[in-house]
Write a structure and sequence with these properties.
Helix 4 packs antiparallel against helix 5, helix 9 runs parallel beside helix 11 and helix 11 packs across helix 12. The chain has 13 helices and no strands. It is mainly α. The chain has two domains: 92 residues, Leucine-rich Repeat Variant (Alpha Horseshoe); 121 residues, Leucine-rich Repeat Variant (Alpha Horseshoe), CATH 1.25.10. The radius of gyration is 19 Å and the shape is globular.
Amino acid sequence: MATPEYLTPINDTFIAKANNIEAQAMKKYMKNKFEFFGIKSPSRKEIYKLHKSNYGLLPDNGFEDIVRWCWNQPQREYQYFAMEFLGRRMKKADIEIIELYEFIIINKSWWDTVDFIAANLLGDYFKRFPEQINTITTKWMASENIWLQRSCLLFQLKYKQNTDTILMTDFINKLNGSKEFFINKAIGWLLREYSKTNSAFVVDFVGKNHLSGLSRREAVKWMQSRGLV
């Protein structure tokens, strides 16, 4: 598939700004799973700012093709661009966008994209379409895909007092005992974030449930720093 016209300036800029030394370091940091141009976050933000000023956000017509094109490229900066710009139009997304979100979760999956997608894109989506929560999360929890399961945990990461603790508890109980690092880390991370809103709930939950060492350490980390446990 040819480079979408909207992305031609980004493509040209990424190539011009490529730094092989940084690219190798970034690739190593990501366990050699992805190629990079070697453009660090501060520079990418400047590139995004200029692109938005000159060409606007993702166009309403064809934006899904643009995102999928980015996801098919070897360099990780394309995926970062796509998810960042999806985030800037998420308030305009319709109910069908969940199919695209699922695509970018299960393809080229790693924490650097999935965590942003879950906490931001999914977090907003399920707030606006709560009737979708049960259908989508039931399917994802049963999928045996750790990134979809991690997303079920993390979409409430920023919900604070609006967190559905019954749903959170159900997901944690179903995934507790997993051997997967990214699942156990997410369980602890979610509990840690919620402890900033309701420490008593998390203290009680951790006390009554046998969590993995990783999940437990993550869950109480913030409370320990405040002398609450």
